[in-house]
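A student in our group prepared the protein record below, which I am reviewing. What it holds is a sequence and that sequence's fold in C-alpha cell form. My question to you is simply how this chain folds and whether the C-alpha cells agree. Do not assume that whoever made the record got everything right. I have pasted the whole thing underneath without changing anything:
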Amino acid sequence: MRITRVLSGALLALGPVLGLTPGAAAAPAAADSTPSASPSGDGSAPTEAGTSFRTATEIDQGQTATASGSAGDYLYWSFPADSGQRPTVKATVKLPESHATQTWQVDVYDGLRRRQACQYGAQTRTAAQGTSSVELACVLRTVRAWSEPWADDPLPGTYYVRLTVLDLKAADLGLPVGTELRVDSKDIGGAAAVDGSLAEPLVPGIAVESAAEEDDSSASAVLSSIEPDDGWASGWWSDRWVWTAIGAVLAALAGIGGYTLTRGSGRPRHVPPGA
C-alpha cells in the first residue's frame, strides 16, 4: 500500500506539469487511425481540371473534384500536404458506353515536380471494352518535415495529380470522359517525426511572397493559394514529445518504487542504534 501511495502521489504531482489528463495518453494513438481531412459540405468543390502544372486546379483535402474532358487529355489538380500526413489519391474515370480497351494512370508529383512513388494502390488500370468506369488509387509515403537534398522523400508543400490515358486506340481519341478526384490523408503523428524542418514549404510563389513582405510591397505574384486548414506545421513539435515525457515519468516512478522495495522498513524500535 505504501508503494502504491508513493507512485500515485508522484504521478498526480507530475500530471499538471506535463499537461496530462485522464485518457490523454491514448489520444495520439487514436489520432493515428483518423483521417486528418473532413469532407467539404459547402458545395465549393472544383468542377474542372487544369491542363498543365501551372494551370492545375487547386483542391482541398476532403473535397471530391469533378471534371469533364476528352480521352487523350492530360488533367491536372493540386493539393496541399503537410508533414506527418500520408496522402491517398483516388480517381474515377467514367467512360462512354462504346470504347475500346484503354489503360489509365494517375501520377503524383511534389512541389519540385518530382514524381512520387506510390506505396500501394492501383496506380495504373486497364478498362476492357465496354467497361463503364475505371478506379485508380495511389497511397503516397508519409510527408517528412525535412530531408537530405539528395533524397526523394515527400516534403511539405503543394502536390500535383496528373490523370491521363496511356494506351488509346485512334478511334477513341477525343471521346468524352468524366472524372472524379478525391484526396484524403492519414495523420501518422510522431512515428514519422524527424529532427529538422524546411524554411518554407514547397509551394509555388512562396519565395516571391516572402520577398514582397520583406520589401513591404503590396504586389506579390503568388502562384498557389492553398494550404492546410490549420496552417503549415513548424516541424519541431510532434506527439513524440508527449511519449518521451511519459517515458521519463514512468522511469522516475520505477526508480522510486525500486528504492522503496530495497530500503526495507527501517530499524525496528526494539533494536538500539549502532547494534
Remarks:
- The longest strand covers residues 176-187.
- Confidence is low (pLDDT under 50) at residues 1-42.
